[in-house]
Amino acid sequence: MAISKEMVVNDCIKAYPKTIGVFTQFKIDSCCGGAVSIEAAANRDGAPLDDLMAALNTAAGQ
């Protein structure tokens, strides 16, 4: 299953532990700010959504 922008950050990390490094790389707050969708977190933290999604799906596939 591919990661979608609607997925909650914390749920993504639980399902795909290797994605935590991607969130860190894109400066996404996955600790205190992880209870929102990936899209909302990207908008909040100023990360380019398309690049973030591509990196997350790559990490999840490894």
What's the short story on this structure?
With 62 residues, the chain is mostly helical.
Q: From N to C, what is the helix and strand string?
A: HHHH
Structural class by helix and strand composition: mainly alpha
For the record, the count of structural domains works out to 1
What integer value in Å does the Rg equal?
A: 10 Å
Instruction: Report how far apart the termini are.
Output: 13 Å
Number of strands: 0
What is the averaged pLDDT score? Answer: 94
Q: Looking at the structure, what is the overall shape? A: globular
Low-confidence stretches: none
Proportion of helical residues: 40-55%
Strand content is under 5%
Largest sheet: none
Query: Helix count?
Result: 4
Describe the structure.
By secondary structure, this protein is mainly α. The chain has one domain. Helix content is 55%, strand content 0%. The chain is built from 4 helices and no strands. The protein has helices at 9-15, 20-25, 38-45, 49-61. It is globular. The model has no long low-confidence stretch (mean pLDDT 94).
Furnish the topology, listing elements before pairings:
Elements: H1 9-15, H2 20-25, H3 38-45, H4 49-61
Task: Please describe the structure with a list of short key phrases separated by commas or semicolons.
62 residues, globular, mainly alpha
